[in-house]
Amino acid sequence: MILFDAIRHQEGVITVLRGAAASGRLAHAYLFWGPEGVGKTRTAQALAQLLLCSRPDPPCGSCSECERVARLTHPDLHCVLPGARGGSADERKQLEAFAADFFYVPQIPRNATISIERIRGLKLESSKARVRAGNRVIVIRNAGRMTHEAAQAALKIIEEPQPGTFLILTCRDPSRVLPTILSRCQRMRLRALPREYIEGTLIERLGLEAEVARFFAALAQGGLGRALALAESDARTARDRAIELFETPLGDAGEAARRAQALGRGWDAEAARMAGELLLTWYSDLLAVRHELPAERLTHGDRLPQLRRQAEQLSLAAIRRRIETVEEMLGALEQHVNPLLALQGALLRINGLVEADPPF
Ligand SMILES: [Zn+2]
User: Fold this and answer.
1) Could you tell me the distance, in angstroms and rounded to a whole number, from the CA of residue 64 to the centre of ligand 1?
2) 213-238 pLDDT, tens per residue?
3) What is the pLDDT of residues 293-327, one digit of tens each?
4) Are 160 and 132 in contact (CB under 8 A)?
5) Across the chain, how many H-helices and E-strands are there?
6) Where does 3-189 sit in CATH, by number?
7) At what angle do helices 339-350 and 316-334 cross, to 10 degrees?
8) Residue range 41-52: average pLDDT?
9) Cα(65) to centroid of ligand 1, in Å?
10) Second-level CATH architecture of 234-350
11) Cβ count near 51 (within 10 Å)
12) pLDDT score for 85
């Protein structure tokens, strides 16, 4: 299989890469960046196929080099994923799953990093004679997760390139990558995927009903990987809980604290952020319903009767106040405000029980 041909909606980047290869102008270091699950690592693998294929007019997709790149077993292709300490077994497992399933998005533990040892290992590899007389490709996924020392070591590889060694970094947000590395990489942005494509893939792969697929596709904001992860994480239940939590009216001001306390540890910064993001899409649906946008345009089309009911009950000003309040709550979480406190403030404000700024 020619991997370039299987990647959807990244034609711009692929055309540039193939053109550069055809004219011998490929850079030695690339940074592919863009939302989660749009095909950054897959595009890196596809470029590796082009660089390692043994036939004229590469990639042919069928020689043994191309096949080994597709299976991620090529000895001159090195892939690095962030991992927990000593997590090489995890890395192997993730890469095997990635090779076996075209839509698989490697699962990276939240605090995982790329260690200096891992990059030193690569340096050793890249200074050794190659297994075959050809190129060598190093892919570093989530390059922003390199520790400072690891990033310095990676910089050395980039600054002193061995002929025929190509480095491809991927990340969501280039600002997380060391500026000295950024300035030496050719940056290529991979686009968010069209919502209809994500919907269609969810229906085909997971057998979801159209309106459920639409919900996850809308939440995922262009990342197929994120959509698949959301579909598996029961985001609909999280949505329903968030609406109940924020939209059940408070009896009195004291109830905000009681409601927050009842959640206790179940309401950490991550849960609060997820709820906040879900609520923002809910409130923007309320506005859309008030403006009589068609149901297909809604994120929460599966809750249309509930949306209509609430849109009738709330004034435009009340909906806007909710949006501002939740945005403020998300901002407070960014500033590491205690999530329970942030929730209390938001509940009081939504219920009109504070006139002044919320207590965070
Ligand atoms: Zn080939």
Assistant:
1) 7
2) 988 998 888 999 889 888 888 888 88
3) 888 888 898 899 999 999 999 999 999 999 999 99
4) no
5) 17, 5
6) 3.40.50.300
7) 170
8) 98
9) 6
10) Up-down Bundle (1.20)
11) 23
12) 65
Secondary-structure percent of the chain, ordered helix, strand, coil, rounded to 5: 60, 10, 35
CA of 186 to the centre of ligand 1 (A): 25
- Enumerate long-range contacts of 59-67, CB under 8 Å, 24 or more apart: 59/2, 59/3, 59/4, 60/2, 61/1, 61/2, 61/3, 61/5, 65/134, 66/1, 66/2
Using alpha carbons only, what angle is made at residue 114 by residues 110 and 118, rounded to the nearest 5 degrees? 145
Whether 279 contacts 326, CB under 8 Å = yes
* Mean pLDDT of the 340-357 span: 85
Ligand 1 centroid – CA 35 distance (Å): 29
Where are the domains positioned within the chain? 3-189, 234-350
Dist. CA 24 → ligand 1 center (Å): 17
Taking the centre of ligand 1 as the mean of its atom positions, its distance from the CA of residue 46, in whole angstroms, is: 11
User: How many angstroms does the Cα of residue 138 sit away from the middle of ligand 1?
Assistant: 18
- pTM value? 0.79
Lowest model confidence (mean pLDDT) among 16-20, 37-41, 48-52, 298-302: 298-302
Residue labelled with tokens 């406190």: 341
Helix (H, G, I), strand (E, B) or coil at 222: coil
Evaluate whether 3-189 and 234-350 have a shared fold: no
Cβ pair 184, 209 in contact under 8 A = no
Q: Which structure tokens are listed for 312?
A: 């009738």
